[in-house]
UniProtKB/TrEMBL annotation:
Location(s) in or outside the cell: Cell envelope
Name by which UniProt lists this protein: Putative D-ribose-binding periplasmic protein
GO CC, any one term: outer membrane-bounded periplasmic space
Lineage of the organism: Bacteria, Bacillati, Actinomycetota, Actinomycetes, Kitasatosporales
Flavoprotein among keywords: no
Species of provenance: Streptomyces aurantiacus JA 4570
Keywords of this entry: Signal
Stretches the record annotates as Disordered: 20-41
GO molecular function: carbohydrate binding
Record domain Periplasmic binding protein: where: 48-290
Signal peptide from the UniProt entry: 1-17
Length: 329
């Protein structure tokens, strides 16, 4: 498993997570099924909301939630989750959290301008905010304590390097949500370092049959595409089917990891995947807000806390299978 510019940050955050997992207090009656600690703290009960730009039927966000729930269990936190793919809807959900007088908010900034005003309201209400996953460059500007996730440009560059190393010449970068700044940054990063040509294709990620048809048609119409880069695990599965429909020999590669992607890596249906460790994003965001509320701690020192990227291939499958099966990778 190869990482890009993340080793130091990952060592720090994993050490933090491990240290907090042994906090004293009452015994947790559950068995920590997702692999976390077995004790809960005895600090006052907190209420923390997480509002994301996606989540419906997406295994990535299930993994984020698994991490957040494990930290919430340990930290004596009531965890409230909601999502809306539209920026306006996401902002309204954040306002609902503010109205509930939550103790902290975790939010994504895929469509940052839609979130600017409401995060200002959170700040005015004295509610600390941690951003995760997308929009790192807007996090501090909008008053968040810190940002937890991968640098999307760096992740894209890692993919470009990997494609070049594999001898690819023409790549199709599939954007499944128009207007999402993180997805655009990924494709731009691929273009920056890839030695071949890159063309973007916009599809509707909420319409799998439509996305499959669009990718298949593109593969049939454009000769020479030897790599399809998808920006989310569910679209990788769609692209494998589209490749079969088109009779294409293109390699399918993807951002993000789940159990299905690991199975496809094992079957050589996917060449490689880029893991940004969503479990860690959810876990650390809740943990940071708990630490801030109980000890005034802030992660990152003004810089994003990186959880990726890591390029994983078929050789990494044996050590990943058990983790993806339980929903922690």
């Amino acid at each position: 498993m190869r990482t890009a510019r993340t080793a130091a940050a990952l060592i720090a955050v994993v050490a933090l997570a491990a240290g907090c997992s042994s906090s004293g207090g009452k015994d947790d009656e559950s068995d920590g099924g997702s692999g976390g600690g077995g004790k809960a703290v005895d600090t006052p009960r907190l209420k923390i909301a997480m509002v994301t730009h996606s989540g419906e039927g997406d295994t990535f966000w299930d993994i984020v939630q698994n991490g957040a729930k494990e930290a919430a269990k340990k930290d004596n936190v009531e965890f409230l989750y909601s999502n809306d793919k539209e920026g306006k809807g996401q902002a309204e959900l954040v306002q609902t959290a503010i109205d509930k007088k939550v103790d902290g908010i975790v939010v994504t900034l895929a469509k940052p301008e839609a979130m600017k005003s409401v995060l200002g309201k959170a700040r005015a209400a004295g509610i600390p905010v941690v951003t995760i996953n997308s929009g790192a460059e807007f996090s501090a500007r909008f008053g968040a304590l810190s940002h937890i996730g991968q640098d999307e440009s760096v992740a894209g560059e890692a993919v470009g390097d990997e494609l070049t190393g594999r001898g690819k010449k023409k790549a199709l970068c599939v954007i499944h949500e128009q207007g999402n700044v993180s997805l655009e940054q990924r494709c731009a990063g691929v273009k920056k370092t890839f030695g071949g040509a890159v063309e973007n294709l916009n599809v509707d990620g909420t319409n799998a049959p439509g996305a499959q048809s669009s990718i298949s048609a593109k593969l049939q119409a454009t000769k020479g595409i030897d790599a399809v880069v998808t920006l989310g695990a569910p679209i990788a599965a769609v692209s494998v089917k589209a490749k079969e429909d088109a009779g294409s020999e293109a390699e399918i590669d993807t951002f993000d990891l789940n159990a299905e992607v690991v199975k496809r890596l094992k079957a050589d249906e996917v060449g490689f995947a880029v893991d940004q460790q969503p479990y860690l994003q959810g876990y650390l965001a809740i943990d940071e807000l708990w630490l801030y509320r109980t000890n005034a701690n802030v992660l990152g020192g003004g810089k994003p806390v990186l959880t990726g990227p890591a390029v994983v291939t078929r050789k990494d499958v044996p050590k990943l299978e058990k983790y993806t099966a339980r929903g922690t990778r």
